[in-house]
Predict the 3D structure of the following.
Amino acid sequence: MIVRRTLLVAATAVVAAVTMTSPAGARPHGAAAGPTRRKALHLAPAREQVAALRRGAVSSRDLVEEYLEHHSRVNPGLNAVVTLDPEGARAAADKADRHLAETGKVLGPLHGLPLTVKDALETRGMRTTCGSPGLADHVPDRDADAVARLRAAGAVIIGKTNVPTMCQDIQTSNPLFGTTKNPYAADRTAGGSSGGPAAAVAAGLTSLEVGSDLAGSLRLPAAYCGVYALRTSFGIVPTRGHIPRPPDWLTSSDMLTLGPLARTPEDLELLLDVLVGPAPDDAAAWQINLPAPRHSRLGDYRIGLWQDDPYCHVDKDTRALLDTVADLVRSAGATIDDATRPVDLADSDTLFQRLMYATASATADNAGFAADIEAAAKIPADDPSGLFLHSRTMRHRDWMLANEEREKLRGRWARYFETHDVLITPAAPTAAVADQTSTPVPKRHITVDGEKRPYFAQTTWLNMTSHVKLPAVVLPAGKTADGLPLGIQIVGPYLADRTVIDVAKHLARLLPEPVRPPAHPAR
């Protein structure tokens, strides 16, 4: 295998590369096109970029150069993209341009579109580290299944985005690449583990990303960075090639999903259509056809609204946001149930934690797992402090009992969605919290209306869907007085991914235009 040279480049290096290697006839970003200057296409929605590429209004190579120039100005201060592959991106763009010129046909629905990929997804010929020093030199010779679908759709992979080490934090920092900053405020977290992807989408470094979500890892960064994200229904997007599990593993967590990040709900749908399908080994026998949205008008939807809960209180800004959303939905004629409580949030969260700790144990080494078993034996079974160790080391029979409890909970959700089409909840208790990279995990916390709350309470509202296989969209719906994005979550029944996107589309038309960070000016 010939490995491309992958680079973590400084701004001056990218500018030099753009200047020296632009093809004959290609215009540098910002150059005049005839008497008028073309708008910055890289800041447009992905659908507009793809349409321009299809009709030949811009070449893939020109668009790659435009993105590289934007990276050189924005990424050094943000640290969202940690590995950049200019040579590989240019070669792929040239191939796409030649194909269109010679055949008149596009390579696929993402023809020639430059994209970044989360550094947890193995990418052929490009360094993939998952933020771990032990994988600093890992260059896969095979794409993760999801990345292979991006390439098959015609996408041009331009680089990799930052994650916490082995995706095991809800903020984004690691020893290899450092911390990704929130695009709106450098002292705030971008969230995790898809903090790099969400920050890159928000800042215009890519129009689309594929994030992964087990414990809100896709949706929390979207909420904090003011972009859209979809946690897909479990099982509809193959996860092989996602780290963790370790490289070359064929299996994955029983709660992990992959899904799109974008700046518009329409772009979520564009990438969803590319990603959805059976794993390659199953594709010969069956296919996935997601049902259409349940309704065509917002006024026809039956919407549950869960604004707050004693188990995980939200702050006054988030409560006010949910009030505003409720008024907008009512004004559209939709049926609102604001007393809805489909599950007990505390019980659901405890079950989620048990199953999460259990599935995470798969990658423990033998010595570490043996030490966990020994430590768990010293903690009484009913001691809350033992939840982590007892869950991590549970016997298979105990896991089967917990899984049965999960299936019963799934049944409760299914019955709920017989009388409700979607459920709207907070995405997080607050807007983006302060980055706490330098604080040991046991000492971290968040503050909700002046009250200290546990650090991992940031994802409690998101976790209610993770173990029961439900799709959920997070969308930007407002902002704080300081200009930080505020998000909400739309939950739907299993396999109703198009329904939650459809409700997000309707709400996007009613809500104010999302606030954009300084790195993503108006076009």
